[in-house]
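Dear Dr. H.,

I hope your travels went smoothly. While you were away I took the liberty of generating a structure for the chain from your last submission, since the lab meeting agenda had it listed for discussion. I wanted you to have the full record in hand beforehand rather than looking at slides cold. The sequence, exactly as received, is reproduced here:
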Amino acid sequence: MSATPDLLEGIWLPRAADVSGKVLELAKLRVARLVIGAHVYRILDHADHVVDSGEWTRNRSSTPDGLDLYGVAGPFKGRRIEALIALSGDSLSICYDMDGGARPLTMVPAPEQLLLTITYAREPVFSGADGAIAAQA
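The corresponding predicted structure, in token form, is as follows:
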């Protein structure tokens, strides 16, 4: 018997990013893909190198939902990042305080607060000739 996968699981591609409302160029983001598996995540750069990885848990006690990331390798190794998420169909926004503070109360920054928000689109999947489902490269 297998557990039902979380709707966060999948391969996510950045579509928009900002720091406290200031738009960031996607090409300059380190993140080219966010891969979320069963309680593990990996961030891949534009050369498909894993630049960050760890474990995650969902925290449904906040509104919007919270996401706790526990860094295992990379710049956040040994740290916990408390983020907010908004998931709607194949769109996922993740927002966290860049100063490493507590989980933001909302995705709207307070004055002097540096909130990074990245909005992702789920990478489309297709069924191959053998019937296997795979992420489209």
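Two observations you may find useful: The chain has one domain: 10-123. The radius of gyration is 15 Å.

With kind regards,
E. W.
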